[in-house]
Design the sequence.
């Protein structure tokens, strides 16, 4: 009786591996590359980094507004939105330009990635998102280059991979000797060595693959994430949606918006400042407050009226409920930044494992299938 569940689980593991293995491998390989995608992109464009400043930009730097003026002069679409990143490094100013026709969700929007000189006076580099190597890999990882349908495939595949991993563990779980179950037999037949390599690769990376797959699924399908958290913990705190008091008028400077945001959250570290198109949308300043684990993409925001400079709303993750706190940790668990350089390197290595599992699984299945076919042919002849 005990053998039947194991046989069933083995079949589930096999067919999930055959159907999802290639996607799992692609997501793992692209994920490994993206662990250091900023550093790799800088290495591929060294001329950008040769232009440096005496110090990194801060809350009061005039270069923010100079870069905005340069960008608006270069791109004549005055109703486009801009997002500037604070890197805390001397050198080029990274930015994103979203034309006015873009979809409201930045994941769907066509956007131009722009790098300004350190003083904001020149455009050093401008490329469409997805038009250069690292952004292409990012899109491949997020949605398999297929937009919304691809993101759905990636998200639900992540949940299916959790089943794949759990069934693999259940099929492996030893019924007798743990020593034999954990051994790699160097002198065994090729079929057995493939099985051992597949087994041990999955075992040593099991927990980390669970974390990467689970967090990846949660990131790919935010609506499902919200529903799961609402059912298990609490509904995450809603992001404020304030509007400026007037729909028209002179837009304040970035420097003024940053000053207001800094006053609202004085212990926050500047991460991004989003400049709206002329109208009723507010400035949105993204900050990392103490306790927020993600340095580059933190979860706290200050919303500033684009005409008066008044603070309209503050979203401080420290004041959020348990689900908001969980969401703050999902991304650092997925991209490996939770422990700094050491965990990023570990995430890079673990991202290679799905390819090992896919290749060894396919080879083992193919050899086993051929061995069975040969055995049946021998029996039929005899």
Sequence:
């Amino acid at each position: 009786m005990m053998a039947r569940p194991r046989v069933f689980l083995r079949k589930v593991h096999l067919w999930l591996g055959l159907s999802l293995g290639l996607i799992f491998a692609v997501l793992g390989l692209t994920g490994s590359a993206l662990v250091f995608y900023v550093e790799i992109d800088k290495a591929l464009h060294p001329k950008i980094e040769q232009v440096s400043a005496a110090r990194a930009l801060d809350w009061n730097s005039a270069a923010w507004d100079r870069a905005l003026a340069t960008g608006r002069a270069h791109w004549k679409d005055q109703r486009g939105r801009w997002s500037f990143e604070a890197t805390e490094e001397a050198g080029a100013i990274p930015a994103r330009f979203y034309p006015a026709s873009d979809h409201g969700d930045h994941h769907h929007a066509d956007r131009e990635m722009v790098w300004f000189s350190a003083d904001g006076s020149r455009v050093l580099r401008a490329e469409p998102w997805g038009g250069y190597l690292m952004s292409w890999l990012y899109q491949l990882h997020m949605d398999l280059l297929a937009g919304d349908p691809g993101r759905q495939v990636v998200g639900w595949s992540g949940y299916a991979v959790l089943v794949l991993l759990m069934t693999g563990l259940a099929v492996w779980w030893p019924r007798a000797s743990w020593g034999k179950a954990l051994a790699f037999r160097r002198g065994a037949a090729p079929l057995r060595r493939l099985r051992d390599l597949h087994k041990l690769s999955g075992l040593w990376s099991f927990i980390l693959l669970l974390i990467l797959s689970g967090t990846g699924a949660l990131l790919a399908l935010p609506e499902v994430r919200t529903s799961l958290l609402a059912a298990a913990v609490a509904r995450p705190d809603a992001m404020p949606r304030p509007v400026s008091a007037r729909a028209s008028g002179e837009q304040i400077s970035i420097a003024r918006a940053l000053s207001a945001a800094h006053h609202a959250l004085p212990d926050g570290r500047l991460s991004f400042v989003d400049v709206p198109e002329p109208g009723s949308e507010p400035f949105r300043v993204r900050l990392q407050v103490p306790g927020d684990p993600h340095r580059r993409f933190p979860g706290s925001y200050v919303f500033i009226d684009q005409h008066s400079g008044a603070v309209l709303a503050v979203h401080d993750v420290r004041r959020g409920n348990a689900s908001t706190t969980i969401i703050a940790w999902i991304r650092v668990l997925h991209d490996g930044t939770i422990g700094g350089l050491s965990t990023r390197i570990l995430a890079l290595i673990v991202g290679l494992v799905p390819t090992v599992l896919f290749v060894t699984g396919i080879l083992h299945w193919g050899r086993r299938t051929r061995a069975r076919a040969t055995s049946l042919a021998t029996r039929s002849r005899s």
Summary: The chain has 14 helices and eight strands. The radius of gyration is 25 Å. The mean pLDDT is 92. The first strand starts at residue 81 and ends at 85.
